[in-house]
Amino acid sequence: MPFAQILIAALAGMPLVLAIDGSAVGMGCTALVIGIVYKKRLFPLAWIVREGKKGHFPEEIHLELLDRVHSILPAEAQIILVGDGEFDGVDYQKTVNQWGWQYVSRTASTIMLSTEDHEFSFEDMACNLQAGETLVAPQVSFSREEYGPVTAIAWWGNGYKEPIFLVTNMESVEDACSVYKKRFKIETFFSDQKSRGFYLHKSHLSDPARLGRLMIAACLAYYWIICLGVEAVRQGWHTIFHRKHRCDLSLFQIGLNALEYLIEKGRAIPVAFNLG
């Protein structure tokens, strides 16, 4: 991604939360994307596009994408990586741990865990779990490959129909659960790229390389639209096309509305950043 290093440098000095996930793009292709979660948005850093309907990528592609991002991150940066149930592979966990990153990944209820004298599944952990409760198994080995030690978490959040299961190398269970919630920002990003923004899923392109290049343009536009939303709020002219006393639009949506308004009125469109 152009100027990814500039974005990283701008956020230096604070822990960086990275989220990774995949989504369908174009015709018959899927993009695996990783980005930085900052406030309520995800800012993309890198991606890989391949042919195939939405589904799990092979673990080697996970590692390829992670390696690309690892190569541009400062060695001293504090990184926390979050992902859903696709990102619980043993090689994935090993690699991230060797880099000194922290991670939280969702995993399946059927995954086996073990201690020196006991073997059990996440499902076994949660057999008596009630809504609002969290159960923790520290210092366990993960899966039949017995990778570890890791911390296993069965977490049934208030308002949810069932528990979810997490694997992490973080010491604080509370922090692990809290940071995992930020994973959903990448789903908001995909919505902005697709049905709520640029309709990337409606592209008739089917070649992964061409879609990858299209995503460069779409992601640069995403950055710019958010900058335009920030400028609209800062200058106060977002109230012209948005209710004054309650904001229920994201900065991205404000930016899109601002662009439409400026074009309609024939006004100058501010460009708040450049690639220099």
From TrEMBL:
**Which terms under GO biological process does the entry name?**
DNA transposition
Ranges that cross the membrane: 211-233
Domain of life, source organism:
Bacteria
Keyword annotations for this protein, in alphabetical order, are: Membrane, Transmembrane, Transmembrane helix
Q: What GO molecular function terms would the record report?
A: DNA binding; transposase activity
The leader peptide range reads none
* Transposase IS4-like domain span: 64-223
| Alphabetized InterPro entries for the sequence | RNaseH-like_sf, Transposase_11
What name has this protein been given in UniProt?
Transposase IS4-like domain-containing protein
Which organism is the protein's source? Desulforhabdus amnigena
